[in-house]
Amino acid sequence: MNFSLGQRWISDTESDLGLGTVVAIEGRQVTLLFPACGENRVYSMQEAPVTRVIFNPGDVIRSADEWELVVEKVELEGALLCYHGKRVDNEENATLKEVFLDHFIKFNKPQDRLFAGQVDRFEHYTLRYQSWQHRYNAERSPFKGLVGQRASLIPHQLYIAEEVGKRFAPRVLLSDEVGLGKTIEAGMILHQQILSGRANRVLIVVPENLQHQWLVEMLRRFNLRFSIFDEERCDEAFADSSNVFDTEQLVLVSLEFITKKRRWFEQATLADWDLLIVDEAHHLTVEKDKPSVEYQRIAELSQDIEGLILLTATPDQLGHQSHFARLQLLDPDRFYDYEQFVEEEKHYKDVADAANQLLQGGQLDAAGEATLTTLLKESDIKPLLSAVNEGDEEAKQELLNMLLDRHGTGRILFRNSRSAITGYPSRALNSYPLAMPKQYLTAINVLGNMGGLQNVQGRARRALFPEKIFQEFEGESSSWAMFDPRVEWLIDTLKALKHEKVLLICAEAQTAVSLEQVLREKAGIKAAVFHEGMSIIERDRAAAYFADEYDSAQVLLCSEIGSEGRNFQFSHHLVLFDLPLNPDLLEQRIGRLDRIGQKHDVQIHVPYFESTAQEVLLRWYNEGLDAFEKTSTTGQLLYGEFSEELLELIATHSCDEDTLDPLLEQAAKKNATLRKQMEQGRDRLLELHSSGQGRSEKLAEEIAELDDQTILPVYMIKVFDLFGVAQEDKGENTIILKPTEHMINPSFPCLKDDGITVTFDRATALSQEDAHFISWDHPMVSGTFEMICNDDFGTASVALLRNKKLPAGTFFVELIYIAEASAPKSLQIGRFLPPTPVRLLMDKSGNDLAQNVPFDGFNQQLSAVGRQTASKLVNALQTVIHPLLVKGNEVAHAQMADIQANAREHMETELSEEQARLVALKAINPNIRDEEIQFYDRQRTQLLAHIEKAQMKLDAIRVIVVTHE
């Protein structure tokens, strides 16, 4: 192929890109710009799947300025074509250079293939039309981006994903309690944003120990391939680009990396991103108006990124000012003054109290009505109040929605609590008192007072770890694990649970290492170690060794790093070898097993030394906070209030009833009061908003119904058969797909050289990690649509109709037209005008019979015909087919106006409703950003322009001839 700058070419594989222009030729590569959709393609010059656009005399062509020219003569000026002729509008002579051709011109002439004898198999034509139908339905589906995740259909997760995923540049804080699936929610939001085109370049920032988990989760659950950028990767990428982050679209980095590596952090800030996701966002702290380095990095990074999603299970507990600062990251215009935020929060309880009155049912009392009237003073709610008192559920729901709209962080903050979500197991504490060994007692007697030079927290922390005091006394090389009774207890416990997986978490990495050695040498127990001193790959191997069913570790020994992010819910036995002072850290530890999907009650095992600091802390958590068997939502508040007295008791090992019991009783009473207040206060209203108030359950049911349909598996199995993909049943719901030498397309979407296992069943996908979950969102399905619809596959066909009621030789011409518009992916034009198949069935008189003769029933009456016979039939009918093509074009283009009108109406209605709601909300809730409202104006204007430029193209043709044989 010979390319020159300015030439116009079309893509043979992506016809919807419109007309491309050669903009660069470098070495053996050529770059084409497709202005209709704003995308570039770089091809090898020798193998570029493109066709040069050359018009002939008699053709009518359109300019970029939208005037038309009847071509009379074509000249070559240098390497570029120049068309001469007369303008259609004023009949003046004009010249149009190919550079200025309309970008939206598309080419697909199946009639040329038909008349040239390039007749496709009968099944190929049928599959092509069905592919267009399925593609149309998939584009229009309200569940696009929500059905494809390898995850259970958990209502609150689906609701949050739908609510946030459809927003323009979402900026939210996902703060569900531990185990409620924040990572899955973020992935579902991201999945929708990418599939809709609202986000193309995404940066995820997570703690270093969670990098590979996120990498695997995004790929395994959502088929999103992220690249981890570390020092080594950045050094390599720097050879290819001045900004290393421009070399990938989906990037994953650690918080530690961008905090410590200023050079690469600065490049990340200079790169263009559509969406930033930050996990474990409680690491972004502000204390006494001084932001941490981590906070400063994310603040600078997120300044020019439109979308921002923060994840943390502890949004407020780890410092209220830090919580405000994180909200400020999301919307600095809304959250600009901390004192004002604190004052505003005082009134949230009034809103929550009013919501609780509505939820409790029955009639509202005078006080309740007065509260609601005051809170909703800008609206006349008297009719609604009367309806509520008469038992009208819709009126009650409308009032609840109005209250939620006024909630201060309602659109930014999502938080579900375990108490409001069903499906959780119980938690049971199993404590094991042990006698302090004499070796520890001796070391403490000699060195214990050395902690006196520290503050009370330091002394308390020291008292909780007698093994460390012993090593100070005997030396670092001394082995405390050889005599510590907790080790013997652990060996006995593991032997008793020999068929169970056990997760052990302790504070120190060295503790985990010592335990692994003694378990292996003393008892022959297989154990894996997981701590911060290991590389990420080593940690992942350890986690996989623990997760395997066969020839694997029975116990995983984790340092504190195992408390964050990881999901080990296939185990239900948790050993807490020691206890942390931070109650949120304790909840995180338990949350590794206590998650939605856990099938057993979680057994928490805590060995401790009697009459020591360990017993004080154990009783504090158990009797004071009830933190083992219930989710601790008040722990941090109570610790802040009682820490001084508690730490002194821990530091002095004070377990006697005269000193410890009064503290525990006081803490328990305060805990009950706080829990009650939190139940009645703002969190309850947040849960109402975050859980979807019934919409979530309906959403889960609707997607479950879609899962149960057989349309997709029937379609894909037909595709596998026709394209020559080998299929082998692996189990009841799984199929092994393998490439063969006879495949029509050697690069079938997502099919590996050694094959893959697939399933169409969600439950099977959840239980079998190696099986790809094939859904309408899966890239194999969308890739199949692209492979079939953007190729000549099935565009020209001939069939026989055996029907003695019709005269032999009677013929019909079936035409498939596609109405489509080229537009940037971010506009989501597919919601309103996806590629729309239009079927015509023309008789010899030019009448369209399609409305009276549905495709499926008609297709079943047809039979295939050999290629030679088909060519003879077409040649014999060619002169009478041409007029029918002209008539078909007229009929199809007449339908185009209706399709465009319906698309405009659908678009105007949907966008206007969404915008009107935001405008109304902004009047009462300043949490609505101006750019969110302005986005709809821009989108409406751009969509209208692209809908107007939509074109009708002939996509496929089939000639049907009646026979009596």
Q: Please, could you describe this protein's structure?
A:
- The structure is a single chain.
- With 965 residues, the chain is α/β, with parallel strands linked by helices.
- The protein has 6 domains: 100 residues, SH3 type barrels (Roll), CATH 2.30.30.930; 187 residues, no CATH class; 180 residues, 3-Layer(aba) Sandwich (Rossmann fold), CATH 3.40.50.10810; 63 residues, no CATH class; 232 residues, P-loop containing nucleotide triphosphate hydrolases (Rossmann fold), CATH 3.40.50; 67 residues, Dihydrodipicolinate Reductase, domain 2.
- It is 43% helix and 18% strand.
- The protein has a 7-stranded parallel beta sheet, sandwiched between helices. Strands 19-24-23-20-22-21 form a 6-stranded parallel beta sheet, sandwiched between helices.
- A hairpin with an 8-residue loop joins strand 1 and strand 2.
- Helix 12 runs antiparallel to helix 15, helix 16 crosses helix 18 and helix 24 packs antiparallel against helix 25.
- The two termini are 48 Å apart.
Taking the sheet with the most strands, its summary is: 7 strands, parallel
Through-space gap between termini: 48 Å
Identify the CATH class of the largest domain: Alpha Beta
Specify the CATH architecture of the largest domain.
Answer: 3-Layer(aba) Sandwich
Basic shape: elongated
**Count of discrete structural domains:** 6
Placed side by side, the strands forming the largest sheet appear as 12-13-11-14-17-10-18
Beta-strand share of residues: 15-25%
Which ranges are low-confidence, i.e. pLDDT below 50, for 5 or more consecutive residues?
A: none
Looking at the structure, the CATH topology of the largest domain is Rossmann fold
Question: What's the average pLDDT?
Answer: 86
Structural class: alpha/beta
Tally of separate helices: 33
The percent range for helix content is: 40-55%
CATH superfamily of the largest domain: P-loop containing nucleotide triphosphate hydrolases
DSSP summary, beta strand count: 33
Report the radius of gyration as a whole number of Å: 34 Å
